[in-house]
């Protein structure tokens, strides 16, 4: 092993470590020197396999495993993100090596093996490593400026991405080996076939997840439109409520003015004045359930819906006026859970109870509805019972998704004849 190979080995290892640094978000209690240790570990690993003259799949596997273990120790990103980007450094390195080698081959119209053995090895290595460093710096700069959001808010639905990344990585490694040796042996063919199969299955799963996500986004878009329409209606009701408060405050002055008109026998003016105020008596008066506008908005709409279905509607809301929850998220959680309660209430004794309280920085929303049967026994997964199942059943999934963003959870229990939904989410 020449001095040049040792230098390249060290450079390559630390370039891989630097890209890991660019891709990962450091935990608060982790030191930046962990990156240097990662570079040292990869250098030692590569040196050992170099002396054993074995640059095969085992080295790639152990290098990826080292990066994965480092990611779990160093990074504060999600598990899926850690597993996904752990394959990326090796993958990018092979892409840079292959791209540079193929470019030289096309320019000089010679095979890659000929170029490597006839004085072009140094140029190919320097350019490929320079390209890798450039891309790593670009990733770092873009992430620092928050313009690069790789796999933001990913969850278990992104597992196909990990499989696709892994299979693509293995295919590029094998392709890179074939390009350099010019030989396709049986082992390479089997590995390529298996990884192509894994990649195909992963892409199918990914398309299924994309379809589900599209349906979820469509459902969310509909909820946002409902929210906008109801907010507009609520604002009008709020204006009317303020008018009533002013009217109540001015009532003694109004009575005094009307009494003076009667004493003066100015009945025409009195009639006009009564007609002017009379319209307020026929406008709908809205109950004020809470200081929070979103709770009032939803509870007003849902209480009207419950009244139409002859359901007794009770609400006890003890929360602050302002919560650190997006209006549309709070609206969606409340609407979905209360709507489910209305749709599934016992028709013989329809009652809905809603209670909202604060426990430390968490909002606890408890919604109860009477039910004939134990729903958790007859429908354990709470699947929709509506006819067009493909167009329904997204309500609870939407609620769970929102609660997940606020470090919350959704649980269901049966209490005698009442079915209880308990949603807890961080509000401050």
TrEMBL record:
Any Pfam family matching the protein: HATPase_c_5
Keywords on record: Membrane, Transmembrane, Transmembrane helix
UniProt keyword Ion transport present: no
Domain Sensor histidine kinase NatK-like C-terminal positions: 327-420
Cross-referenced InterPro entries: HATPase_C_sf (IPR036890), NatK-like_C (IPR032834)
Keyword Protease listed: no
Transmembrane residue ranges: 6-24, 31-52, 58-75, 87-108, 120-141, 161-183, 189-207
SUPFAM superfamilies named among the record's database cross-references: ATPase domain of HSP90 chaperone/DNA topoisomerase II/histidine kinase
Protein name: GHKL domain-containing protein
